[in-house]
Specification:
The protein is of the alpha/beta class. Helix content is 46%, strand content 14%. The chain is built from 14 helices and twelve strands. The longest helix is centred in the C-terminal third of the chain and has 21 residues. It is elongated and about 80 Å long. The model has no long low-confidence stretch (mean pLDDT 93).
Length: 355
């Protein structure tokens, strides 16, 4: 029932936004909500080329209004290209959003039921007979992909791509990174509390960019460093000295990195692996915006996760005893660091995380 209510609300909003829409425009909305863009993707290069070509006719004076679909996707206008997002990055977002939806057909049928009821209640501007006839014909065609109506094209000039919602909160960030990369090598810090999605975001960067990623978690203190005096320091529970010496300073000097990771299972540091940094370098982890580090970054991101969502994620991914250590030991230390060093305020962008 909750899903039906959300479908009801979004279909009404869609009609209010586009009062001249036709039946096939409602069906297209429903189809994209259930299946996303899986039917449109052939290969990455074609997706990028198509965006490049279509962008030539794009009205870059329009606003970047993202339209939420009724599911895991949104319509992102091509006008996002004016904010700095490159056609290559946009194409990759589009390409990586395409996936097989095994439950797509059942989701589609549920949404059709809701739309049909809205038509019957005169909440959508179509006759029941016409709408049901259109649904029947569409079903007979195997619910093939559908185009916008001529009237919709004429009145609203739709120019967008259907993108997975997991990328949506980070579009301004990707746009900024694309702008910076046109000028120079870029080092980006991703900070935020435990379970805020820092590692997930760094993996997104790896999906979209040819980048190098370093993790703060590889620089935990060695046993001999774990003293009461050290833990009293703000951000004292990571090996700041080694991170500076082995990562940030060599990066600033364009040197090859000898990357040594702290192994929690043996409490030792692994042998060095030589890494030649690429044009985009991501530094990911709590304490990455420590005041000793921040001068080495070109851009910084804070992922702001609500307490209840953080708790839910930690309990889901950890055994109870380990989750207890997060709540009683590590998160309190993080909160002191965030407060004393004004981390969120010092970051270039703060992104609110939700489910």
């Amino acid at each position: 029932m909750e899903q039906h209510g959300r479908t009801h609300e979004l279909l009404i909003k869609h009609y209010q936004r586009y009062p001249d829409l036709q039946i096939q425009d409602i069906l297209k909305y429903i189809y994209q909500s259930a299946f996303g863009c899986e039917h449109l993707i052939t290969d990455l290069n074609s997706a990028i080329d198509y965006i490049n070509g279509e962008s030539k006719d794009c009205d870059f004076n329009c606003e970047n209004l993202i339209e939420r679909l009724d599911g895991e996707y949104s319509r992102v206008p091509l006008s996002f290209l004016k904010s700095g997002l490159t056609a290559e990055t946009f194409g990759k977002l589009f390409f990586k959003s395409a996936k097989n939806e095994p439950d797509g057909l059942s989701k589609l049928e549920e949404k059709i039921q809701v739309a049909t009821k809205l038509v019957q209640e005169n909440k959508l501007p179509f006759s029941s007979d016409e709408f049901e006839k259109a649904i029947k014909q569409w079903r007979n065609r195997g619910f093939s992909a559908i185009h916008h109506s001529d009237k919709f094209h004429k009145n609203y000039n739709p120019m967008y791509r259907v993108i997975s919602n997991r990328y949506i909160p980070f579009l301004p960030l990707f746009s900024k990174i694309d702008r910076l990369l046109k000028e120079k090598k870029v080092v980006v810090a991703i900070d935020g509390g435990s379970a805020s999605g820092k590692t997930t975001l760094s993996k997104m960067f790896e999906e979209l960019y040819d980048c190098t990623v370093f993790h703060i978690d590889d620089f935990f203190l060695r046993p001999e460093q774990r003293t009461p005096e050290r833990y009293e320091e703000i951000g004292g529970n990571i090996d700041r000295e080694r991170f500076l010496k082995e990562i940030l300073i060599p990066l600033s000097e364009n040197k090859t990195i000898n990357y040594r990771k702290f192994d929690c299972s043996t409490m030792t540091i692994t042998p060095a692996v030589k890494i030649v940094p690429k044009k985009l370098i991501i530094i990911e982890g709590v304490y990455s915006m420590h005041t000793h580090f921040s001068k080495y970054y070109d851009y910084s991101v804070f992922l702001d996760v609500p307490t209840q969502l953080q708790k839910k994620r930690i309990e889901k991914r950890n055994f109870p005893q380990l989750a207890k250590r997060f709540f009683n030991e590590w998160i309190p230390l993080e909160e002191i660091y965030f407060e004393k060093m004004q981390v969120k305020k010092r970051c270039d962008i703060s992104i609110s995380i939700s489910e």
